[in-house]
From TrEMBL:
The family this protein is said to belong to: In the N-terminal section; belongs to the HFCD (homo-oligomeric flavin containing Cys decarboxylase) superfamily. In the C-terminal section; belongs to the PPC synthetase family.
Keywords: Decarboxylase, Flavoprotein, FMN, Ligase, Lyase, Magnesium, Metal-binding, Multifunctional enzyme
Entry protein name: Coenzyme A biosynthesis bifunctional protein CoaBC
Function: Catalyzes two steps in the biosynthesis of coenzyme A. In the first step cysteine is conjugated to 4'-phosphopantothenate to form 4-phosphopantothenoylcysteine, in the latter compound is decarboxylated to form 4'-phosphopantotheine. Catalyzes two sequential steps in the biosynthesis of coenzyme A. In the first step cysteine is conjugated to 4'-phosphopantothenate to form 4-phosphopantothenoylcysteine. In the second step the latter compound is decarboxylated to form 4'-phosphopantotheine.
Region (Phosphopantothenate--cysteine ligase): 11-225
Limits of the DNA/pantothenate metabolism flavoprotein C-terminal domain: 6-216
Catalysed reactions listed for this entry: N-[(R)-4-phosphopantothenoyl]-L-cysteine + H(+) = (R)-4'-phosphopantetheine + CO2; (R)-4'-phosphopantothenate + L-cysteine + CTP = N-[(R)-4-phosphopantothenoyl]-L-cysteine + CMP + diphosphate + H(+)
UniProt-annotated binding residues for CTP: G93, C94, A95, D99, K109, P127, D128, I129, I130, F146, K160, K164
MF-aspect GO terms: phosphopantothenate--cysteine ligase activity; phosphopantothenoylcysteine decarboxylase activity
Cofactor dependency: FMN; Mg(2+)
Cofactor note: Binds 1 FMN per subunit.
Organism: Rheinheimera tilapiae
Gene name as annotated: coaBC
Length: 225
């Protein structure tokens, strides 16, 4: 077989969107297809890593050799992520996690009536998964986040790197419809506190291979220091 440099390395990856229920038939979500996260799982497994993929609802097949855990909501993804993180060497948060959920889930379908021309939904903040992983005091994995931005990409990505205490952040400009959410291609700039690495536009499959190699290099570098 091909070279397996990541043999014995446990990698956990989140992928896809989360869904936050409004009532029994409706939800809040986003356009994440899971393609980027699944490509990362495929690339890491191909290099021999022991890969767990924590996946929101997507229409993709489980990559060969990867352990998949299906979740729906941000809170479920949080619980599963914290369980996996403590025995992971590397944790990559590629999921598009809903920042907010509905405060009071309606038990029955919300009805349209003659007197409600408008409807106000109250939202509450979801836990920040990647920040919680990065804040672990014991057995903290090398933690890699993503930043999906529509403006000031570098500035906002660096802010997230620092605020969430990540080892690396992978910034993508999602204002371009050819990149980011539910597209075949992507382009990423990876930031650490001391360096940046530009990975230009290409298929998510090719980008994921380059990104996994870069993440592994940085992880090894960190271990030595
Ligand atoms: O799935 P695809 O269609 O292939 O699209 C790929 C992608 C655009 C979704 C992906 O490349 C990407 O950018 N993923 C992160 C999307 C996102 O939610 O970014 P953010 O900037 O809002 O979040 C920053 C980081 O915090 C992310 O690592 C996110 O997983 C994490 N987060 C956010 C909120 C939250 N409550 N918990 C988190 O862990």
């Amino acid at each position: 077989p091909a070279q397996q440099p990541l043999q014995g390395v446990k990698v956990t990856i989140t992928a896809g969107p989360t869904r936050e229920a409004i009532d029994p038939v409706r939800y809040i979500s986003n356009h994440s297809s899971g393609k980027m996260g699944y490509a990362l799982a495929t690339a890491a497994a191909a290099l021999g890593a022991d890969v767990t993929l924590i996946s929101g609802p997507v229409q993709l097949a489980t990559p060969t050799g990867v352990t998949r855990i299906d979740v729906t909501t941000a809170e479920q993804m949080y619980v599963s992520s914290m369980q996996q993180a403590s025995n992971s060497d590397i944790f990559i948060g590629c999921a598009a996690v809903a920042d907010f959920r509905v405060a009071a889930l309606a038990s029955q379908k919300i009805k349209k009536t003659a007197d409600n021309d408008g409807l106000t939904l109250q939202l509450v903040k979801n836990p920040d998964i990647i920040a919680s992983v990065a804040a672990m005091s014991a057995q903290r994995p090398f933690t890699v986040g993503f930043a999906a931005e529509t403006e000031k990409v570098a500035e906002y990505a660096r802010q997230k790197l620092q605020k969430k205490n990540l080892n690396l952040i992978c910034a993508n400009d999602v204002s371009d419809p050819a990149l980011g959410f539910n597209s075949e291609q992507n382009a990423i700039t990876v930031y650490s506190t001391t360096a940046e690495f530009a990975l230009g536009q290409r298929s998510k499959t090719d980008l994921a291979q380059a990104l996994i190699s870069l993440i592994y290099e940085q992880y090894q570098h960190e271990k030595k220091h």
